[in-house]
Amino acid sequence: MASYTLQFPEESTSSTITYSLVELPPTISSLISGINGDSSGLVIKGQPSDDAVLCTPSATYNIRSVQNSNSLLLCRPSKGKKVDIQTTLHQTLELDLTVPKLERITDILKGQEWSPEEQAEDEHELGRKVRDYVFT
Fold this sequence. Notes:
Layout: E1 5-7, E2 21-23, H1 26-33, E3 43-45, E4 53-55, E5 60-77, E6 82-98, H2 105-109, H3 116-126
Parallel strand pairs: 1-6, 2-6
Antiparallel strand pairs: 3-4, 4-5, 5-6
């Protein structure tokens, strides 16, 4: 078994990037790796006062932070048999499947109601009857 020396990089070369480790369910992992298509359908949503959620085209996941009992070292290969420690992680982000939060949908759609005049204009432009739908 090969042995490596762990070292902290010199201050001048150390990164100021902050990392987070995310534990992915297999369905999300396959989306990211491109097995089921491209990952452009992954979106993190939420207002500043909300808990963040990860949305895919078919599911919504709560994002929650979980403390690790053991520290995790994020490392990068260096010269020779040395490995530079980039950062130490004390928490992991987990994704829990949830139902979409629709509490604000009424506020978002308010003022966007479809009027009979708009329906007549749409029917004239399309050259056919448009069905009526009422959402309450």
